[in-house]
Amino acid sequence: MNRKTLVLPAVAGLLTPVLAACGGSDSGSTSGDAIVVGTTDRFTATKAAPAPLDPAYAYDVGTWNILRQSVQTLMAQPKGEGEPVPDAAESCSFTDSGSERYACKLREGLKFAGGDPVTAEDVKYSIERVLRINSDSGVSALLNTIDTIETQGDRDVVFHLKTADATFPYKLSTPVAGIVNPKDYPKDKLREGFDIDGSGPYTFKADVDDDAITTATFTKNPSYKGNVTVNNDKVELRSFTDADAMGEAIDKGDIDVMTRTMSPAQIQKLDTGDDEKVDLVDMPGLEIRYLAFNTNATSVKDKAVRQAMAQVVNRGELVSKVYGTQAEPLYSLVPATVTGHSNSFFNQYGNPSADKAKSLLAKAGVTTPVKLTLHYTTDHYGSATKQEFEILQKQLNDSGLFDVTIQGHPWSTFRPAEQKGEYDVYGMGWFPDFPDADNFLAPFLDKDNFLGSPYNNSTIQRSLIPQSRREADRLGAAKSLTEIQDAVAEDVPVLPLWQGKQYVAARDDITGTAYALNSSSTLQLWELGRGVSG
């Protein structure tokens, strides 16, 4: 077996506010047969979430990876790393010195896959639609710095922002800013089901069973004009119930590639085994895991309880027992490789100590043991999640300060219950929308945040987040970003646990796997091709 390690910069800041146009994408090596990619992501329509693939609703890495192949955005994250590049746009830039006016010009002759022209009015419609619907997934918060959108002719769009936002080009590269055809997407309500119509690199067709996608077929869109080169004619994305079933499929040759989420045992086996037909590629990743708290819940409303948990949890033990070298302890919401990171939780709590935790609780007059239930999802972040929570349970209970039980739930019920505030403490993962420290902080701490958290820190929301967004040079934002992270370590509305690597396994005739995922876990199916097996 061959193992490949891709070394890329884990993140790059906004180097310049002016972004020049990049080249087109008609050609590239193509394959006769569809390249088949396996995933354990589940794509389900439910009563609570009937429109999982609408850009105005979708807000998880799996559904975004479907949308990124089929719905085009003005900007796009590049093949490697760095600031966003134009995609549907020919060029984009800030046109003022205060990062409050952002102008884009569409590529000439841009069309939806169905043949209708893509106009500036379509861009305006698409983004205003997201803000108008304001779905309970929280995704519209990514665009909350927009004040008004102006169009000039068919190709020019100008965004007037409420406040300075140097991260805005990144936000325009995410699927929430996807350009949709007004004919297919209602103005005031979500588009239910599994249909997608866009101008991206591929057209999309879903095979559905029992309100869940079994296979998503991406066919090269001949009308696409944008930044990427499409290296294949067709890709099938097949959803598996678990990592073991996906692993059996690649061993048999039923699939060509497997992505998220492989189990730690599978990765270790591929890393050390002798299967010469399958290559394992590991690359930098910005995935994080954390515990989140409903800070209004009686059991964890007292800050001392959350601080005591932060004082007891042993990240090193957790990582070594469950993930080995595939993850690293994390002491902030911002990963260690991202500009602006600070080890705020280690600075605040140091090494794990039951005695220090006991002192925190006693000082606050909290009766022990504190009874808690930790909730986790059984089918969204991989099979190792259960073991992770068993170790967290043991660490907390062994301190003598907590009486913890754990409960697992499928994502289809876990996420709606979490959004409704039904869980006091629950485990979540985060795959960044874009690789900037702002995207590891604002989604959890700003108004209308992703978690629906009741935690409210007015200094963070009104002062520190806006200050950090004024800095086009992200190093200049470090002071504000550090203050935010220090406040999180003090109040503990969330408790960061670990930062992970990411992996792709592919049969040895598949090319392009080194760029099949970027550091934000964006699936770039267009990079895959079929070569000669060796």
UniProtKB/TrEMBL annotation:
Its main location: other. Residues 1-20 form the signal peptide. Keywords: Signal, Transport. InterPro entries: Peptide/Ni-bd, SBP_5, SBP_5_dom. Residues 83-449 form the Solute-binding protein family domain. It holds the Pfam family SBP_bac_5. It is found in: Cell envelope. The keyword Protein transport does not apply. Belongs to the bacterial solute-binding protein 5 family. This is ABC transporter substrate-binding protein. It comes from Streptomyces lavenduligriseus.
